């Protein structure tokens, strides 16, 4: 079943460039794919490109030459070079993928006896499910994170639709028969639509957009605490709005707090760093384990880099470089022994900040 | 336990360093001893601006909302009249926030719904909240909102820690 394998591969490659934005890399992949399709040795007396559509070659060529199917991949193989220049948008590759999938329906319905309807629909629905399962596995390896939920959503939706197909009886079969008949009669096949959905180009673009939006809403739901249980776009948006407003208000309150609290401290961070004496560094302090204030303390060995950057960035004081030896918490008792209180609080403060940040 | 294991170029540390720098500058400017309410209010405003500014600078221009914030900060009150004129005529923002907010809301509602099929009234509210959100479609708006929420959370964390530190003494 070379054509089948080729089909699956091409379909999965198409889905690899589906979903999300078309990056240059993906478009290159697409170009390569198309070149491979063109140049690959033909199997079963048909180019693998037409094997993709699983239609008999003359119909496929007719299909390719169809004037008003702007969303199919290209006109005919020689025209693919032109296609290279003008790349389609992701929604189109999504359509192509659906296209290919639907042609699986029509193709198999065509090839086999139309009397054998029930095993047909079962076969048809079994195959795409396998393809569907392989697709997410392949796409995950090659996709950025954002498009993953989109693709998975699409594949999940396809699975749901497959289940619906299995559940529904005569109506779907007759629809499949009708569509397959249309495929035979008409020169071009609008095989982009899913079963039972409108084939309008506008509605398809709308659907792609809506899927994108739904994926992003899901991400937002995870970000905002307490949003997982709410269903419905409007309520979720309300929650998000409340969250953003509360965060902004928190920033305002905190800045007011900082403005009010500061006057009590009678030191300047700059003066702290300039007036720090060397002996402070040389003395040994008991090492205490500070509670981790930052929730995300990563386990890298970046300490030295961080300190270096810190002292280059803000302070430009060589003093901090020496601090890496004694990564310690300066207790008030220790400092009181040697220095006056204001300097103590200052250094204590500065070290606090350094530790905790 | 190694405390200095944070990623030195994470959003948190970038924002923290910038904000602290700005904070020390503000502290240096004014005599800290004065604690009249007006002074405090002025300091509050400066600190708030500094916080937003340092957060926007930490994100650079990678995000639309940070670009909008930086732009808004640059064309602020020093050149207020020119700024509002420039903002009105610019392509970037459809409506000016400084101008009559109430009047424009009505316009925006009537036009916004036609131009962009969106989540309705909530999306409009979200656009007002997120800086630079007025000129985005729903898809990008949700993207920007997610990143904006993440950055706001970071900001709140850092500022809270600093405020706690300061209030210890």
UniProtKB/TrEMBL annotation, chain A:
Residue stretches making up the BHLH domain: 197-247
Gene3D superfamilies assigned: Helix-loop-helix DNA-binding domain (4.10.280.10)
Skewed-composition ranges (Basic and acidic residues): 150-165
Alphabetized InterPro entries for the sequence: bHLH_dom, bHLH_ZIP_TF, HLH_DNA-bd_sf
Cell location: Nucleus
Assigned keywords, A-Z: Nucleus, Transcription, Transcription regulation
Biased composition (Polar residues): 1-16
UniProt region (Disordered), positions on chain: 1-22, 62-91, 107-184
Protein name: BHLH domain-containing protein
Classification of source organism: Eukaryota, Viridiplantae, Streptophyta, Embryophyta, Tracheophyta
UniProtKB/TrEMBL annotation, chain B:
Residue spans of biased composition, Basic and acidic residues class: 106-121
InterPro entries in alphabetical order: bHLH_AtIBH1-like, IBH1-like, IBH1_N
Taxonomy, superkingdom: Eukaryota
Compartments in which it is found: Nucleus
Keyword annotations of the record: Nucleus, Transcription, Transcription regulation
Location of region: Disordered: 92-121
Domain IBH1-like N-terminal positions: 9-76
Pfam families: IBH1_N
PANTHER family in the record: TRANSCRIPTION FACTOR IBH1 (PTHR33124:SF40), TRANSCRIPTION FACTOR IBH1-LIKE 1 (PTHR33124)
Protein name (record): IBH1-like N-terminal domain-containing protein
Native species: Hibiscus sabdariffa
